[in-house]
Sequence to fold (277 residues):
Amino acid sequence: MIDVINLEKHFGSNKILKGINITVNKGDILVVIGPSGSGKSTFLRCLNCMEDPTGGQIIFNGVDIADMKVDINIHRRHMGMVFQHFNLFSNKTVIQNIMLAPVYVQCQELRKAKRKNIITTFTNIFRGKDKKKELIPITTSKSEIKKNARDNAMQLLGKIGLQDKANVYPSTLSGGQKQRVAIVRALAMNPDVILFDEPTSALDPEMVGEVLDLMKALAKEGMTMIIVTHEMGFAREVANRVIFIDDGQILESAPPQEFFSNPKNPRLKEFLSKVLA
Fold:
């Protein structure tokens, strides 16, 4: 699904990523660990081009999305993102937050189809009978798009037990509730992969479990996930591969059992001795 080839990211003379190479297959749960400042979050933000890579390729579903000629917004629709600090819109209710992206994208597609049909109808006037172009079939309306998005949002909220919070504002929610809403907001676009940037690090300890439980449920359903986290127990239990990034490079990549029980890189051994102590 994703091939990262020699990915580099520089901020001026500061080289954050120094030639990252990794392949992520459909259904993979890839956990990324490493010390603070090692480049983990930058790596994640480069994957959906929130940060423009300085060099290298990111092949997502057969397209190099690091190519500046590519319309990244089309491909971002298939790559969800969950942030450390939730990034919910505070001026919109919970259900409005979840509905926002699918309604916007589908209404945009509807407008494009209608515009094309207007142009086609006009140009067909000047075409011969056997050269007229067919109109794009339009089978929905703006109101139907909103209704379907609302129904889907309520269904997603039901999955996390927060249907009763649909019409409240994010400020009234706990940190764990905000992060679960942020996760289902990403799910509302039916993405191929979800990127998680330290999704539990801003939470109180008692709220971490409810977010990790939702992520475990997504893993069981086969969702492809790339997760930057400090939760070693979660990585050991859920990941099918763990990578260790330090100083902008992948120093080790292995299945969790081997990664934690038999680390080979000296820097990883040192890191694990501190975080698992």
In short: Residues 90 and 170 are 6 Å apart (CA to CA). The mean pLDDT is 94.
